[in-house]
Amino acid sequence: MDVVTHTPANVTSLAERRLLHETVIDRLRDLIVQGELAPESKLNERVLAEKLGTSRTPLREAIKFLASEGLVELLPNRGAVVAALKPEKMKEVFVVLGALEALAGELACRNATETDIAEIRALHYHMLAHHVRGELTDYFRYNQQIHNKFMECAGNTTLAHTWRGLNAYVRRARYMANLSRERWDKAVKEHDEMLEALVMRDGARLQVLLRDHLANKLAMVMEALATP
Amino acid sequence: MDVVTHTPANVTSLAERRLLHETVIDRLRDLIVQGELAPESKLNERVLAEKLGTSRTPLREAIKFLASEGLVELLPNRGAVVAALKPEKMKEVFVVLGALEALAGELACRNATETDIAEIRALHYHMLAHHVRGELTDYFRYNQQIHNKFMECAGNTTLAHTWRGLNAYVRRARYMANLSRERWDKAVKEHDEMLEALVMRDGARLQVLLRDHLANKLAMVMEALATP
DNA sequence: GCAATCTATTTTGTATGCAAAAAAGAAACC
DNA sequence: GGTTTCTTTTTTGCATACAAAATAGATTGC
Fold first, then answer.
1. CA angle A137, A139, A140 (to 5 degrees)
2. B66, B68, B99 member nearest A69 (Cβ)
C-alpha cells in the first residue's frame, strides 16, 4: 500500500461540494434509521470508515453529531453504539412528539396555503393507493412525506428540526412492526380525518386527532417491541 | 518544542475519568451560553484548542456536537461560528419552548412528589431574596434552577434533554437584557402564581401561566435584541 | 475442566502532519 | 487612489501516527 500519498483513494467527485463529514452524517443516519445498523450494535470505527470510504476522523465527527440527536450513545473508552430501542424511552419520545405535532397542527391550520393543502392531499391519495394495494414500504414513504410536509407548513424550522431528530429515533421501530390490517386501516382513517380538519382549518380538532394518531402509533410500536 | 513525545503537556489529572471531548463540549457550551464567545464570532480551532488545552481533534468533535444542538453553525470550508441571535429564530425557539414547558407543567402536576415541590419552594424563596436585593445574577441562577427542577419533576428525560438544548440558545440573550424593574417584578409575580398552581396540582392553569411567562420573556429578549 | 493471571491484539482517544481552500497582504495596472 | 491580480500566510478538512484502554487469547495453577 502506498504510504506516502495523503490523498484518499476514492476522492470525492469534483461536482460534489458537500463536506465529507456531512455526507457521512446522512449516510450513517440512514443506515441506523433503516435498521441496517441494528439498535445496540457497536459502531466499529475502522470497519465503518472503510465501508463509508473515509478515514476515522470525519466518521467520529459524524458520530458525535448523531449522539447529540440521540441516535447513538457514546460509551467512554468503549466507542459508540446505536441507541437501544427501549420501551420506556419510546414512550417518552412519543409524549414529546405528541406535544410537537399538536403544536405543528395548530400552526399549520393557521399558516398552510391552499397550495400546501393541495400538495398534502395529493400525497394523501398516493398513500391511499399504496394502502389498498397493500404496499407497506411505499405507504410508509408517502406517510412520512405527509408528516414532513405538515411540519413544513407549520412554518417553524426550529420545530421541524426538533421533530425530525426525535422522529428518527422512533422511525426505526417501523421496520420491525408487523402491522395488522385493522391497525393499518385505522391509521389511514385517522389520516383522512386529519386532512379534513386541516382543510377546515380546525386547529383544535386537528390537535386531538394528532394525539390519537400518535397514541395508536405508540401502541403499534410497543406491540412490535414486545414480540421479538 | 519537543516534537517526539505524543503525550500532551497538560495531561488530564488521573482523578479525571471523563473523556476529553466531553469536557470540551461542556466548556465550549458554557463559553457560548455565558456570552464569552459572542454570537456570530468565529471559532478559530487553533486558538480555541490552545485555550482549552487540547488538540484540534476533540475540539472539532465537540463543535460538531454543539452544531447539532444549534449553538454553533458550520460554514463549509470556513469553519464554525457561534449561532447568531436572530429575532426570527428567537421567536421560533420560544414557540417550541412554550409547547415543551406547557407539557412539562402538565406532567409535573401529575408526577411531582411533595418533596419535589418543597424543593422548588425553597429555590423560589432564594430567588425572592435575591430579587428584593436586586442581585440579578444570583436571581437568574435560582430562576434557572427552578426551571430545571421543574423539568426534572416532569419525569421525562427526553423532554428535559430537548428543552435544555433549545433553552441554551435562548439563555444567551439574558446576558444582554437590560431588565427593567417592572418587568422583573412581573416575572417574579408570575413565578409566585406558577408555584401556587403546582401546589394545587392545577395543570391546566399552570400551562396558561407558563405560556404567559414565556411570552413575557420573549418580549424582554426582543427588546434587548432591538436596542444594541 | 475451570478459574485466574498474564500476554498479545484490537480498538478507542488524542495529537500531529499534510493538502486544499480561504484570507490577508503585496505588487502591478489603470 | 482604487481596483485587480498574484503571493504569502493562515485556516480548515482529512488522513494518519501513536498511546492508553479494552478485549481476546494464551498460559498457568489448581
1. 65
2. B68
Residues 6 or more apart whose Cβ sits within 8 Å of residue A219: none
Chain B nearest C-alpha distance from A59 (Å): 10
Min distance B141 CA to chain A CA atoms (Å): 25
What would you measure as the largest C-alpha separation in chain B, in angstroms? 67
pLDDT digits (tens, 9 = 90+) for A101-151: 999 999 999 999 999 999 999 999 999 999 999 999 999 999 999 999 999
Tell me the pLDDT tens digit for each residue of A48-107. 999 999 999 999 999 999 999 999 999 999 999 999 999 999 999 999 999 999 999 999
- Alpha helix positions (H), B70-180: 87-111, 114-132, 136-154, 157-171
Give contacts of B76 with chain A, Cβ < 8 Å.
Answer: 17-19, 22
Residue type, B170: V
Predicted model pTM: 0.89
Q: Do A99 and B99 touch (CB under 8 A)?
A: yes
- Model pLDDT for residues B21-50, shown as the tens digit of each residue: 789 999 999 999 999 999 999 999 999 999
Residue whose C-alpha is closest to residue B42's, from B52, B32, B34: B32
A82 touches strand D (CB under 7 A): no
Which residue in this structure is represented by grid cell 445498523?
A37
Show residues of chain B in contact with A58, CB under 8 Å.
none
Distance to chain A for B49, nearest Cα, Å:
16
Which of B22, B92, B107 comes nearest A156 by C-beta? B92
Phi, psi of B42 (to 5 degrees): -75, 140
Whether residue B156 lies within 8 A of chain A, CB to CB, comes out as: yes
Q: Does the beta-carbon distance from B60 to A65 stay under 8 Å?
A: no
Query: Is B67 in the A-facing interface, judged by CB distances under 8 Å?
Result: yes
Q: In angstroms, what is the C-alpha Rg of chain B?
A: 20
Mention every residue, 6+ apart, whose C-beta is less than 8 A from residue A145.
Answer: A123
Residue B213 at interface with chain A, using a CB cutoff of 8 Å: no
Q: Which sign does the torsion angle of CA B198, B201, B207, B209 carry?
A: negative
Confidence bin at B228 (pLDDT 50/70/90): low
